Fold this sequence. Notes:
Layout: H1 2-17, E1 56-57, E2 62-63
Antiparallel strand pairs: 1-2
Amino acid sequence: MYNRILLFTIITVLVLSCNLPQPRRKKIKARPKAKQVEVELPVLTFRDTLDHTFTLTNKMSGVF
C-alpha cells in the first residue's frame, strides 16, 4: 500500500515539474490613447463688498 502511494507521489511530482506547453492567448490590442485637450479655465475673483465678520465652525472647533 505504501509503495503505491510513494509511486503515485513520485509520478505526480515528475509530471508537475515538466514544462508543458501553455495554450497561446490572443494578443490584446492596446487602446488608443485619449487626446488631452488643454482648456484654460476661467479665473474667478471674489470681491468682499460687505465687511462682515463670520465664523466657520463644526461645533467643536471654529475658524475666525
